[in-house]
Amino acid sequence: MDIQAIVKQVLEELKMAEHKNSSQLSTPNNKEKVEEIVRSLVFEKEKVVRVDSPIDRETIEKVQSITPARIGIGRTGTRMKTREYLDFRIDHAAAQDAVFRGVSEEFLTEVKLPVLQSKSESMDEYLMNLDSGRQLNEASRKWAEKNLSKNKQVQIIVSDGLSSSGIEANIRDLLPALIQGLQVKNISIGETVFIKRSRVWIQDEIASITNCDVVISLIGERPGLATSKSISAYLIYRPNQDTVEADRTVISNIHDGGIPPVEAGAYLADLLADVLQHKASGVILTQLKLN
């Protein structure tokens, strides 16, 4: 639905509301109708050259087709046009929502993963205190020590990170593809867990608890205005107290507009097999594969 259609629908609903008294509008049934109207509004993006009288329209269209960047949007005086401004606000709102909304309970029930918790008690603490997201809280650590399988080759972690939207949009397809790929290769897998408000380094603690060979974290990426639904995969071979960032291998931009989640799952299974074969990850793995 385009902007004009949205405005038209809203105006029609407002006109209908004028014929009802205020008491009727406050009834539960009417509130439900209003909520249904809001849910039905859909904003569809379209790549259109909005520069007035462009000198080379074809070049602008070509560039628009290969990048999500805001190119050829035109302007009114020193400001962007209304539609582009609304488009910007929608993308900005989606990015904020991805960070603060949190993964829904319905999704967690659907994927049937054990839910653990970092030491971050709130999203504010998670954003302001990095270390709070790098360790399990006491209850989760005790549960993991008691219930997670030990000495498996691969341990998978799913984390909301900075994009709950990315997790909900991609894990349903990515996780089964990854697990199937590992099973085909006869690679043993521990129980996949979901960890709320966790950061990449929490995988080191999980690895120490499970004594796995490789731990892989599927975590929501920091959202941008191009997409709020991207996730990354971080994996590391037997992390310890001397581990540095260069020891981790990362595959980013997993989403419909980047690496499709099913394709990413299959690729990650191959990558994990390489890590197990070379007993290394990160920069060391790259060097071994080049030699």
UniProtKB/TrEMBL annotation:
EC number per UniProt = 4.3.1.7
What superkingdom heads the lineage? Bacteria
Name the UniProt key words of this record, in alphabetical order: Bacterial microcompartment, Cobalamin, Cobalt, Lyase
State the free-text cofactor note: Binds between the large and small subunits.
Question: Which pathway is this protein engaged in?
Answer: Amine and polyamine degradation; ethanolamine degradation
Compartment annotation: Bacterial microcompartment
Q: Which Pfam families does the protein's record reference?
A: EutC
Give the primary localization class: other
Residues bound to adenosylcob(III)alamin are 200, 221
Identify the Gene3D superfamilies for this entry.
Answer: Ethanolamine ammonia-lyase light chain (EutC), Ethanolamine ammonia-lyase light chain (EutC), N-terminal domain
The cofactors it requires, by name, are: adenosylcob(III)alamin
Catalytic activity from the UniProt record: ethanolamine = acetaldehyde + NH4(+)
Q: Name one GO molecular function term.
A: ethanolamine ammonia-lyase activity
Tell me the InterPro entries matching this sequence.
EutC, EutC_C, EutC_N
Family, as annotated:
Belongs to the EutC family.
Describe its function. Answer: Catalyzes the deamination of various vicinal amino-alcohols to oxo compounds. Allows this organism to utilize ethanolamine as the sole source of nitrogen and carbon in the presence of external vitamin B12.
Assembly and interactions? The basic unit is a heterodimer which dimerizes to form tetramers. The heterotetramers trimerize; 6 large subunits form a core ring with 6 small subunits projecting outwards.
Q: What is this protein called?
A: Ethanolamine ammonia-lyase small subunit
Q: Whose protein is this, by species?
A: Neobacillus rhizosphaerae
